[in-house]
Amino acid sequence: MLVLGIESSCDETGVALYDTERGLLAHQLHTQMAMHAEYGGVVPELASRDHIRRLVPLTRGCLEEANVQYADIDAVAFTQGPGLGGALLAGSSYANALAFSLNKPVIPVHHLEGHLLSPLLAEQQPEFPFIALLVSGGHSQFMAVRGIGDYTLLGESVDDAAGEAFDKTAKLLGLPYPGGAKLSQLAKLGSPDAFQFPRPMLHSDDLQMSFSGLKTAVLTAVQKVREEHNGEIPEQTRNDICRAFQDAVVDVLVAKAHKALLDTGFRTLVVAGGVGANWKLREALGRLKVQPKGKGRLKPAAETIDVYFPPMEYCTDNGAMIAFAGAMRLQNQQEAGKFNVKPRWPLTDIVRR
Ligand code: KG4
Ligand code: ZN
To answer: Is 114 marked within a binding site?
Structure first.
C-alpha cells in the first residue's frame, strides 16, 4: 500500500511517500524558517499561504523521486492537528481534494503520533513496549507506548515545552529565530561552571516538568550581564549561558527519563521531536542506565537500556513520519477521515480503549 503523507502543522511543508512493503520511497521538505526569521517567530498567515504554494510542487517532486504516478497512491495521510489552524487547513484541504479526485481514502494523523512513531523509520527499530520522550517546540511529554495506537501519557511540561524554552532563551540572547539549534551549537563553546541555573521540578515525585522558571532565571542573568557591559552580552558569556541553560534542561529530561523507565519497568527509550536533535541530550541519554531501588544495603547493579533517536532528518517536522503513521493507521483499518482540523488535540484522545 502506497501512502502519501502531508505535513503542514507549523512552518515546514513536508510531503512523503511510504510503501508498506518497500518502506519510504521519497520525502521532500520546504522549511519556511528564512521567511519567518525577519519577524522573530512564525507568522501564521504567511505560513498558511506558503504551504499552499509548496504542496503541489513537493508532491510532484516526491512522485518523480519514487517514480510513481498519482494513480498509484492508495491513501492520503495528513496532519490534522495539533498546530496552527490555517496551516493545518492548507494541508487538510489539499489532502482531501487530492484523495477525493483519486477516489482514495484520506487518513487524518495526529502530529505527535507522527513524531512518536518516527524512530520506526530508522534502520534499527525499537521494539514495543517503549517509553517515548516527545520534545518538540509545542510539547514535552513522556508516553508509555505499548503498540501502534496504544499510548499512555505519563507526564508532561506544565508550562513551556522544552523546544519553546530553547527558542525563547535564544531570543533573550539575541540569537536569530529559531534559536534552539543555534543555542545548542554555542553551548559547545561555553564553560560548564560559569553559570548555574535551576533544575525545575527535578525532585518532584512524578513525570511533570516545568521550563518557564528556567527561562526567567536566564532573563535575570542576561539583564545583569547587560547592565555590567553597557547593554551588550560578551560572546563568551553568551556561550556560557547557552551551556548552563542546556545543561539544566538536559539534566531534567534525563532524570525524568530515568524515572519513567524505573516506574514502568520498560528498558527501551525512544526520543522524538525537534529537541531530539540536541547533541547534549543524545549524549546524556546514550549513557543512561537504570538504577533499580535496592531494599537492603546492597545496591543492585545498574541496568542498561536501549535508546533510539529518529534519524536527524525525521526529528524535526517532516512528511515521512505522517506518511508512516498514516500507513500504520490504514493497516489497522482506521476509518476514513473528515474534512476538519484540530489545532488543539491531546494525543491521549486517539488512544484505543
Ligand atoms: O518537532 P519540531 O520540528 O516542531 C514542533 O512540532 O514543534 O520541533 C521544533 C523545536 C524548536 O523549538 C527548535 O528550537 C527545537 O525543536 N530544536 C532544538 C534543536 N533543534 C531543534 N532544540 C535544542 N537543540 C537542538 N539542536
Ligand atoms: Zn513537530
So the answer is: no
